């Protein structure tokens, strides 16, 4: 496949290496260090899919540019989802292809799946409180992490005792604490803890390397061309 990389940081470089090893061709790299190359230079004739891992402030404009150019786009950037409804609308208007996941690792998507199940059961049986924690490297600019927010939003949907999340300790019983920690080079750890006076149940995902994110993003890029609309890992993995 002919891939356009948007963002050439930790994820962009790791995706480049893995993509080439899988036989793909990198036809362009969009990087602030080379402002002369822009998304507008590419078209469906030259690109099968774009893969976007940049920055919360840059992602939406990049997704818009891809959709306007008719490029299927796989986006992994976090911290821009307040614009997601606009991205969905533009995707519909342009008959485009957009794939988004706050976390591309298969393990995390199973973690999301089981978290939804457990949240619903905990609500049904009662007696438990719940908290989300995420730990990442100190270069991460957004908090809470996109992954923690996906897990928190699922808890709000399936565990109605929690109606709102906050990025600190809960002050009221209806508040879901989503706690963030930044330390060292931690790739990404997410923990959901359900606790009662009697016992605790912890669901934990710990990324050891970025390989899981990279492989998932490449799988999405291989799958997306030919699929029109807005998709996520549930579509790809059949969850
Ligand atoms: N969904 C998932 O599975 C995962 C998501 N992420 C998310 O992906 C994003 C990137 O992560 P990561 O690679 O670790 O971050 P890095 O900071 O290592 O890399 C981001 C890169 O994007 C560049 N950049 C900034 N603005 C633009 C722009 N307008 N166009 C093109 N490139 C730009 C930066 O350049 P410069 O430094 O010059 O500004 C930098 O090289 C984050 O939002 C992170 O949360 C990360 C891992 C997994
Ligand atoms: O910035 C990161 O590194 C990561 N970001 C994503 C997030 O915000 O959830 C995914 C992963 O945890 C790594």
From TrEMBL:
It holds the Pfam family DapB_N. Residues 1-104 form the Dihydrodipicolinate reductase N-terminal domain. One of its GO terms (molecular function) is 4-hydroxy-tetrahydrodipicolinate reductase. Its EC number is 1.17.1.8. Pathway: Amino-acid biosynthesis; L-lysine biosynthesis via DAP pathway; (S)-tetrahydrodipicolinate from L-aspartate: step 4/4. It comes from the Bacteria. Keywords: Amino-acid biosynthesis, Diaminopimelate biosynthesis, Lysine biosynthesis, NAD, NADP, Oxidoreductase. InterPro entries: DapB_C, DapB_N, DHDPR_bac, NAD(P)-bd_dom_sf. Residues 107-237 form the Dihydrodipicolinate reductase C-terminal domain. This is 4-hydroxy-tetrahydrodipicolinate reductase. It comes from Hymenobacter sediminicola. The gene is dapB.
């Amino acid at each position: 496949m002919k891939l356009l990389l948007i963002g050439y940081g930790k994820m962009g470089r790791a995706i480049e290496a893995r993509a080439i090893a899988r036989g793909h061709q990198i036809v362009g790299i969009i990087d602030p260090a080379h402002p002369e190359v822009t998304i507008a230079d590419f078209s469906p004739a030259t690109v099968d899919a774009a893969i976007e891992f940049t920055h919360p402030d840059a992602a939406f404009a990049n997704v818009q540019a891809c959709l306007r150019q008719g490029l299927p786009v796989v986006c992994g950037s976090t911290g821009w989802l307040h614009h997601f409804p606009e991205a969905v609308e533009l995707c519909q208007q342009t008959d485009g292809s957009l794939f988004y996941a706050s976390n591309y690792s298969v393990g995390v998507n199973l973690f999301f799946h089981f978290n939804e199940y457990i949240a619903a059961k905990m609500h049904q049986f009662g007696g438990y409180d719940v908290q989300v924690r995420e730990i990442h490297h100190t270069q991460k600019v957004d908090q809470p992490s996109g992954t923690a927010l996906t897990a928190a939003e699922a808890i709000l949907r399936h565990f109605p005792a929690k109606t709102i999340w906050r990025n600190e300790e809960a002050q009221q019983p209806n508040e879901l604490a989503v706690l963030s920690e930044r330390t060292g080079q931690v790739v990404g750890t997410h923990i959901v803890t359900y606790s009662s006076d009697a016992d605790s149940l912890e669901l934990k995902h710990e990324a050891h390397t970025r390989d899981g994110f990279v492989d998932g993003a490449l799988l999405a890029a291989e799958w997306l061309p030919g699929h029109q609309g807005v998709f996520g890992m549930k579509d790809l993995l059949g969850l």
